[in-house]
Design a protein that fits this description.
The complex is a heterodimer. By secondary structure, chain A is of the alpha/beta class. Chain A contains five helices and five strands; from the N terminus they run αββαβαβαβα. In chain B, helix 9 runs antiparallel to helix 10 and helix 10 runs antiparallel to helix 13. The chains are: A alpha/beta, B alpha+beta.
Chain lengths: 114, 341
């Protein structure tokens, strides 16, 4: 499953600089709003679904080398956070859907490793 | 150079081959490189990878002269310019049509394509790539901001431009890494170590994670394995966030890098932890509500540190402060942290 397919199927808004997501393969994901749980549970190159939008999500995503962060329920991060993500090479996406819906869709698409 | 069509085709095939490999086995390194190539498509200017001052022809030149030009210079297309204005483009396909008609003595303006698709010199090369994909043309004349022809670009030019840029970056990074990783080798002492210090302010959530990010990057530069760097990064992150969330006056992270292990320590002057056993219990947290709302204070921080560490020590005196010591050996990596189950 490529990140590009996920972005298209879930109709995600890319907040950071657009890149060619067709070469980014996503096989696993993690969903939580508790950062330490993400630190413990998320695997690198995976997708992280969260409602959190403050700047620390960028630090977490960069440290874990996550391929994408999907921020749910239109919880739009501040521009500073987006700039920081661009600097760190972290891909941030936004959707108006809740986390439950996003995870359901990802599961349906075959992103099932945790 | 505007070489013949085969050249472009072959390069295209090579690019898709690379993609295939990526899908087959993805390593940290290939992902990093592929992403960098894509970034370069956005960063490199068309002006940086185009062929400057291309061979141009005028509309009245006979097709026979075009044939000679293509044969001698081994190019397969040329912009047509009339009094320094771009009026068309003539390609090997046009020449073949003229040859078939036995029409080599007519002016080339009868065979040229006059609706020329162009790109801007200051645009990123991704714009040229998009145009290639949409139009299926093999070469694009490049115009400056005044509409003057300044060059010509093919897919081959882009591939070469990106490769050159990558090469430059790799050399720079290698040099940096070489200097760093040879730091210890070149210095003779009975015991060599490098100490990094980071001062962390209380409640500075805006910079939370920055110190740990710098620590991780420094370790990678020094030649630590990605796994070790990751474990140090995670442990340092949790320690850093603890200083931000819980301390009265902030604290210091001290990273001691030695040839065999990395020692991460934090020092603060309060408030201290009354019951360390309780603090180590997963899920236990004293973080205030507004901090929890940001997703901190899950009560997992110390557990995460322990999980990443080869050894961990926590000493605290209420009212005095806390001293955390985390040791991570450079080799072999700790078995208990399995990232790829």
């Amino acid at each position: 499953m490529t990140l590009q397919e996920i972005v298209a199927q879930l109709n995600l808004t890319c907040l950071t600089k657009p890149r060619d997501f067709s070469a980014v393969e996503i096989r696993n994901g993690y969903a939580s709003d508790l950062l330490s749980c993400v630190m413990a549970g998320a695997r690198h190159h995976g997708v992280w679904v969260t409602l959190q939008s403050h700047s620390n999500i960028v630090a977490v995503a960069a440290l874990l080398e996550l391929s994408a962060v999907i921020i749910t329920e239109n919880s739009r991060p501040e521009q500073e956070t987006i700039d920081k993500a661009d600097e760190e090479g972290v891909n941030l996406f936004l959707t108006d859907k809740p986390t439950f819906w996003v995870v359901g869709k990802l599961w349906e698409m075959g992103v099932r490793d945790s | 150079m505007v070489k013949d069509g085969d050249d472009g085709l072959m390069e295209e095939r090579q690019i898709s081959d690379t993609r295939l490999q990526v899908e087959r086995s993805i390593t940290d390194e290939t992902i990093g490189q592929i992403t960098r190539v894509e970034e370069l498509f956005y960063e490199l200017k068309i002006a940086d990878s185009m062929t400057r001052d291309p061979k141009v022809v005028t509309p009245e030149v006979p097709m026979r002269a075009v044939l000679e030009l293509f044969r001698q210079t081994r190019i397969s297309g040329a912009p047509v310019v009339d009094q320094s204005v771009l009026v068309g483009i003539i390609s090997i396909e046009d020449l073949i049509r003229a040859l078939v008609q036995g029409d080599l003595d007519v002016p080339l303006k009868h065979y040229m394509t006059s609706k020329v698709i162009t790109v801007q010199a200051q645009s990123p090369v991704i714009e040229a790539l998009k145009t290639f994909a949409q139009t299926r043309v093999g070469r694009l004349p490049v115009l400056d901001e005044n509409g003057q022809l300044v060059g010509i670009i093919t897919k081959g030019d882009i591939t070469r431009g990106v490769l050159k840029a990558l090469q430059r970056e790799i050399q720079l990074e290698e040099l940096k890494r070489y200097r760093a990783s040879h730091l210890f080798e070149d210095i003779v002492s009975d015991r060599t170590s490098l100490v990094l210090r980071y001062y962390i302010k209380p409640r500075d959530f805006a910079h939370g994670g920055q110190a740990s990010h710098h620590i991780k990057r420094a370790l990678l530069r020094l030649g630590a394995s990605p796994q070790v760097a990751r474990r140090c990064g995670i442990a340092a992150y949790e320690a850093e966030m603890n200083l931000i969330i819980h301390t009265t006056n902030g604290g210091v992270i001290r990273v001691g890098i030695e040839p065999t292990d990395i020692l991460i320590e934090t020092f603060d002057d309060g408030p201290g932890i009354p019951d360390i056993q309780l603090a180590m219990t997963p899920g236990y947290s004293t973080a205030p509500e507004e901090v929890r709302e940001m997703g901190f204070g899950a009560g997992m921080g110390l557990k995460n540190i322990e999980r990443c560490a080869d050894s961990m020590q926590l000493e605290s005196t209420p009212g005095k402060g806390t001293h955390l010591t985390v040791r991570i050996y450079l080799h072999p990596p700790k078995e208990s942290l399995q990232e790829h189950k």
